[in-house]
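Q: What structure does this chain adopt?
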Amino acid sequence: MSAFDPTPENEANVDREIRIEKMKRELEELSGGAMISGSVGDVPPELEEVFLERACAWERAPYDTNFNRLVQRRVEMIPPAELDDCKLRVKLQKVFCALAAIRCFLHDTDHLSDRELYTWLWSDGLREETPDLSQLGGAWHMSPNRQWC
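A:
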C-alpha cells in the first residue's frame, strides 16, 4: 500500500486539513498576529473546522453599537429626560423587542427601576461597539454589571 491513500474519505480529510490551515492563517491575519491558540485535547477535525468557521465569521462581522442598530431598525431613541414614566415604560418594551430581534438580551436588571434601566441603556449599555451576531447564530448578552457573548 502506498503512503498516499486516494480514497474519497482520505481526500475529504486532506481537504478539511487544508481549509483548517487556511482559516488559522486568516485568523492570524485578522488578529494582527495576536492570535493565541491552543487545544483542550484531541478534538475531531470536523469540530475544529466548525469552530474555526465561526471564529472567522465573528472576526469578519461588522462592528457597530446596538444603539445604532436600533435606530437603523427605526426605533426612535429618545433621551431619558424627555420621557415621562408612562412613555418610558412603552419605550422600554419597544427597545426590548428590537434588541431581541437583533439577538441582544438583557440580564440582571431586576434591581433597577425602568428609568434607571433605560438611562443605563441610553448612556452606556447600547453604546459599546459589538459584532453583528444576528446573522451568525450567536447572541449578545448584556447586564448593567457585565457584558458577555
